Amino acid sequence: MALMDIRVYGDPVLEKKTESVKTVDDDIRKLVADMYETMKAAPGIGLAAPQVGVSKRLCLVDLSAGSDPDRLLVLVNPEIISEEGYQKAEEGCLSFPGIFGHVERPMRVKVRYTDLDGGTQEVEGDELLARALCHEIDHLEGVVFINRMSPLKRRLVMKAIRKLRREGQWEHRPGEGSEERA
After folding, report:
1. Is the whole model's pTM more than 0.70, yes or no?
2. C or N terminus of the chain, fewer CB within 10 Å?
């Protein structure tokens, strides 16, 4: 297993809709293993394939941030099939190191996906799990969390990112930082 570079905002792969995974094979399983190690090292509670430069419809969610491997959800070709309610809370993202903002999401979601054995599964989540599932599935659609912020907050975030770029600080590698981000 290998740590992968996490792409930061500005990399075009983050705003491109991903391709469906045609077959769950050993290459996909290796990608999942590498993504899991990368997510744990970051540390984070979610990671989508585009965040490591792979434009495939695949994401991981683990609310334990790697402390309990049994809680890892590996979602291949996920789709939200129902949602209800709403919540607004602060989010962060491994592709936006140090950037946080309030985002509105559904309170509850049901997601259908393919597992690593090629079977169809469904997961229901509420509160933080619903938020993490929506955040990661957004990545697969080429939507980053700042797109869900108010226009004013988004402008402030972009201003902060431009400043970090000028200062040469807009770069992130796995294992840096101590915040948990989805």
Report:
1. yes
2. N
